[in-house]
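Following up on my earlier thread - several people asked me to post the actual chain instead of describing it. Fair enough. Here it is, all 337 residues.
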Amino acid sequence: MILKQKKINKIILFGGSIILLDVAKRLKKEKFIIEVYSSNRLLNEIINSNGSLKANLILEKIKYYSTNNINKCKEINQSITNNSLGIGFGETWSFDKKIIKQFNGYLLDYMGIPLPRYRGGAHFSWMIMQNEINNGACLQLINEDMVQGIYDSGEILLEIKFKNNSNWNINDYFKKQTTIANKLILKFLKIINKKDIKSKKINEDNSFYLPRLNTKINGWINWYSWNTVEILRFILAFGTPYKGASSMINNKRIYIKNARLVKKSTFHPFQNGLICKISNKTYDVITINGIINLEIIFEKKTTKLINIGDRIYTPIKKLEDAFKSKPNYDSFGLIKK
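Reply from S.P.:
Thanks for posting it. Predicted structure:
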């Protein structure tokens, strides 16, 4: 497909995340008219020190709308003009034929993955767990066959490939993708203002899907069979901006966002999870082949102290639930609560 040259003055952003916010701010500085369409869940997610996406949009004086189904939203029909471009950022709905036709081809998705690898959700978390080095991002055309969080089939207009750093946490991924998103979108706008852009089909031979994750359900640490590196990578995968990887101590749920290797050593599996040292409000914990240092946050306020010799553990039932759970989608690709 060839996307014809066009003078764009209005950009409608769909979805959420810190990436969408940063792109909205940058495009506003470039004098584009900006509007955001999101859902209550995404608008209320805490994304930075200023609070939720909603709070940030209000602070930046960026117009936004909330809808649980974009295809039944009355405002969107009035928002789309002949000079509009739509860009999705993890939106929770799939677009119907009517909206796609209104945009006349100028409805795109920003995909912060090396498409078609890592289709699905929780892209950055899965990459960290796998210690994935090769990454990428692209702008792709939205079509009727696409189902959010499941299948991204649109042809690619522009793409960038880059390398991950093996020490990145989830926040580092967001920062890198924010930079890449701005670079890619500004490049697209510069090109389409002057000439046509030809899209290319996705090589489905490389397709690789992994589902969305729910931090509260899926983020439990397996102290019983994971080695030190696997535990450390799992903690990195659920760190800021997420709540943290979960475990238990003294029958209380805890979240762990930060962890580092203190010492390589060999321990018996029965020693796993034991706190062997406490200093500066951090805790040295034994794993199969090393000692790691953790920062611990209790889910609920408690007066109970953590003592040396206490054990961090995860109930088997929690691990079973983490493995069995999967997102539930309705016909629009919206995750049911």
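The mean pLDDT is 91. That should answer part of your original question.
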